[in-house]
Specification:
Chains A, B: Belongs to the DinB family. 2 copies of one chain form a homodimer. With 160 residues, chain A is mainly alpha-helical. Chain A is built from 5 helices and 2 strands. In chain A, strand 1 and strand 2 form a beta hairpin. Chains A and B meet through helix 1, helix 4 and helix 5 of A and helix 1, helix 4 and helix 5 of B.
Chain lengths: 160, 160
């Protein structure tokens, strides 16, 4: 990894901390749903929050694999059937959090700023990483509405 | 602004482009609401999307002022009454987009990575900027649920 003495806007370590803060909040959001609603309740026919959270597992796994292998094909995003069960979801979640801590701080800056042909268009691995994080924030915001519709208080957004 | 030849994860210019992509998507979300629903409709007693969008105007104005002045006090977040009217909201939105283009690419990297006491806790201006962007994504995701509840198709998330 190239080191520089000059000030930088964001380091891979800071990006890792930023994402992990979001991931802890998303984990609390998963936990906030009643057992019988996580994979069934939604508003207006949208996907239940458990399904959205499994999508986050899929996109995060795809991203980590691509950052490691530099393979960006769609097949990395293929959907396997997922257990409709909170414990399995949380276990997959925690495994990925450990992978992020192990893999993201050490990414090469030159690699992260080189454009690739990825399923979301031609962009850098840095952009793809933000896309993955932003997609998580987007769907978690939807989960907040589901919780409100269930009469439940979502976790505090500012707490990471 | 300090320049470096070494590769970096994110430049102020790239951060500006990233945010402006989100802002264009949020603007399309504002436009997607029917006139008579933007400031009135919501799910489960949450704030209407027009109100959430004005909050984004407030937090973005606060951030840009703080990046310029290095003043981070709460008073910068004080709420003035806002017109319940889409045209006024979009006009404020566009003014801020122009300010972001004019002001964000030139921020000093040393300043952006120095911790400050800001209303969301002790953090760097870079973190405060991401907090502002993430809050926009979060609330926009809620707006997507409102649109679905109104039987309307939200704008495509991947289009920026």
């Amino acid at each position: 990894m190239t080191q520089t003495e000059a000030p930088v806007l964001l380091t891979p370590e800071a990006l890792t901390r930023h994402w992990q803060g979001h991931r802890r909040l998303t984990r609390r959001t998963i936990e906030a749903f009643p057992d019988d609603q996580l994979f069934s309740f939604s508003v207006s026919g949208m996907r239940p929050f458990g399904t959205l959270a499994w999508e986050m597992v899929t996109t995060t796994t795809y991203l980590l694999n691509a950052l490691k292998s530099d393979s960006w094909g769609w097949e990395g995003l293929s959907r396997e059937p997922r257990p409709q069960e909170r414990a399995a979801l949380l276990s997959a979640w925690d495994d990925l959090s450990a992978r992020i801590d192990a893999e993201l701080p050490g990414v090469s800056l030159a690699f992260m700023s080189t454009e690739k042909d990825i399923p979301f268009g031609r962009q850098t691995p840095t952009s793809a990483t933000f896309y993955t994080i932003d997609n998580e924030i987007h769907h978690r915001g939807q989960g907040y509405v589901y919780l409100r519709a269930l009469g439940l208080e979502p976790p505090a957004f500012y707490e990471r």
